Structure prediction request, 246 residues.
Amino acid sequence: MKRLENKVAFVTGGSRGMGAAISKRLASEGAIVVLTYSKSPEKAVAVAAEINASGGHALAVQADSADAQAVTDAVNKTVAEFGKVDIVVNNAGIYIGAAFEDHTLDDYEQIMGINVRAVYAASLAASKHMPVGGRIITIGSNMGDNALSAQTTLYTMSKSALSGFTRGLSRDLGPKGITVNLVQPGPINTDMNPSDTELADFLRSRMALAEYGTVEDVAGLVAFLASEEGKFITGTALTIDGGLNA
Ligand SMILES: NC(=O)c1ccc[n+]([C@@H]2O[C@H](COP(=O)([O-])OP(=O)(O)OC[C@H]3O[C@@H](n4cnc5c(N)ncnc54)[C@H](OP(=O)(O)O)[C@@H]3O)[C@@H](O)[C@H]2O)c1
Prediction:
């Protein structure tokens, strides 16, 4: 029997990058996966098709994380279709970098809407249906603990909010047998943070391991937390950053 057999997983931002790798990994371990996307329908459908072609079960659903109601509806659709939701992976996120005085009020709304409010919305909707053994796993960032450089204020603010959310929610849902954790990746080679830029050279120079991680590295940690083996880990942040914050 696979580790996540009979589990239903909901992954936000599953069309590309880490969310795609997490969706594939959870499905390969036996979970039914509902993955959301906003702007990349072809990529999302391709991820779901790849999972289905390899004997798994996945569904791509459009739900813009900027719209809390759309996220709530997508969780409710998952429950209506598959009867429950055991695993939520709050992965969708954006980065908006600029000199602080060049930011707009709208930048705040956008980044907090997608990186924080959507996490709250998905977790809230799922908590009403999540059985014992449930898992809420949010993808934060090593920058939640370490701003690293200028022009990261909004992103750092949004990612550090997730650690308070995770700690509080672990105490609300612990009595129901549900764990809540934050995974904080460092530099991972994706569209958001390609490994062949000047920024990448700077980041490597600050890392203990001096190399970028892969989306599969993060997916492996998420799968561990989602599995029975992760059952005693809750209310905490696990940083997976090649020693950038060391
Ligand atoms: N890459 C890194 O080095 C790194 C480091 C630390 C933390 N993180 C965090 O890890 C998570 C994944 O990042 P990534 O590097 O995989 O990013 P990515 O390559 O840019 O992919 C982002 C994913 O999120 C989805 N997404 C973005 N905005 C969305 C929205 N409004 N509604 C729904 N989905 C949305 C995208 O869907 P569409 O294709 O439909 O736009 C895509 O599937 C993010 O939370 C990010 O902050 C990344």
